[in-house]
Amino acid sequence: MVQQITKGIKISVETNFEGTFYKNYKLHFAFGYQVTIENQGKDAVQLNSRKWTIYDALNNIEEVEGEGVIGQKPVIKPGESHTYSSGCLLTSPFGAMSGFYNMVNFATTKNFEVAIPKFHLSAPFAIN
């Protein structure tokens, strides 16, 4: 598990390898990840959007942006958390992801970024 705190918001990420499959005659490696967003601050916040950078061992880089997470824009009150699961496909058995969430503080109405710490994705059978 990796964790990081930015402006009172703690991000924790756990990953798992889901398996391999062929798509368009090419082998893909599927990874799942679970993110917990914990508000350790004193004001309620809302997650509005996210931006991910996905790296694989073949030097492919993909950027993914969008509103909310898995179709939600959670409001997280002080002392509460929001957990969701998602996944990604790589064309190699190793990779990594990092990024940030765009959030708004309800008390100040100011937007701010929360870093998503870089986490590694690796298929267990490929680890030496």
SS elements, strand count = 9
Describe the main β-sheet briefly: 5 strands, antiparallel
Number of helices: 0
Q: Point out poorly predicted stretches.
A: none
CATH fourth-tier homologous superfamily: ApaG domain
What is the level-2 CATH architecture name?
Sandwich
- Give the CA-CA distance, first to last residue: 20 Å
What level of helicity do the residues show?
under 10%
Mean pLDDT: 95
Number of domains: 1
Outline type: elongated
DSSP strand content: over 45%
Structural class: mainly beta
Pfam family, one: DUF525
Protein name: Co2+/Mg2+ efflux protein ApaG
InterPro entries: ApaG-like (IPR050718), ApaG_domain (IPR007474), ApaG_sf (IPR036767)
Organism: Mesoflavibacter zeaxanthinifaciens subsp. sabulilitoris
